[in-house]
Design a protein that fits this description.
By secondary structure, the chain is mostly beta strands. It has one domain: Chondroitinase Ac, Chain A, domain 3 (Sandwich). The chain is about 0% helix and about 60% strand. The strands form 2 sheets. A 7-stranded antiparallel beta sheet has the order 1-2-7-8-13-10-11, with no helix packed on it. It has a 6-stranded antiparallel beta sheet with strand order 3-4-5-6-9-12, with no helix packed on it.
Length: about 140
C-alpha cells in the first residue's frame, strides 16, 4: 500500500481512500464529491482528518493513509498505514457498543460516548497496512 496521491480518491467499489502521512506541511482537499456526499480531508505527518458533509468521520494522530474506507449503519471498515503507532478516533452512533477487530482479531467491545466518538490505538509499521473493522 502507499499514501494517497492527491489526498483523496474514490475506489472502484465506491469506498474512499485518503491521507498522506509523509507530508511535512498541512495539505487539504475540500469539496470532494462521492456518491452525493461532500468530503474534506486534511493530512500531513502529524494528523489526518476526514469530514463528510461537514461532520467529523475520522482522525488519526499522527497522520496516516486510509484505504478503502466503507461506512454504513452497522459500522465502518478500512485499512490504515502510517510511519508509527496511531491513535484513531472515528464517529459512530452515539451511546452504542461496537466490536473492534484489527487484522481479523477481536480487541473487544467498545462503547461510544454521547457524541458517538470511538477511539482505538493501532500499532503501525511504515509500508504495512492494518485492517480495522468496527461493527455493531
Amino acid at each position: 500500500m502507499a499514501v494517497v496521491e492527491g489526498l483523496i480518491c474514490r475506489e472502484d467499489d465506491g469506498s474512499i481512500s485518503f491521507g498522506n502521512y509523509l507530508l511535512a506541511q498541512k495539505s487539504k482537499v475540500s469539496d470532494f464529491e462521492n456518491e452525493g456526499d461532500i468530503y474534506k480531508v486534511k493530512s500531513y505527518c502529524e494528523i489526518t482528518k476526514l469530514e463528510k458533509n461537514e461532520m467529523f468521520v475520522y482522525e488519526s494522530v499522527p497522520g496516516t493513509a486510509v484505504h478503502s474506507l466503507k461506512q454504513d449503519a452497522n459500522g465502518m471498515e478500512f485499512e490504515v498505514e502510517g510511519a508509527k503507532d496511531a491513535q484513531i478516533t472515528v464517529e459512530m452512533e452515539a451511546d452504542s457498543v461496537y466490536m473492534v477487530r484489527i487484522n481479523g482479531e477481536s480487541i473487544g467491545t467498545m462503547k461510544t460516548n454521547l457524541s458517538g466518538k470511538l477511539s482505538v490505538s493501532v500499532e503501525l509499521e511504515e509500508g504495512k497496512a492494518v485492517q480495522v473493522k468496527i461493527e455493531k
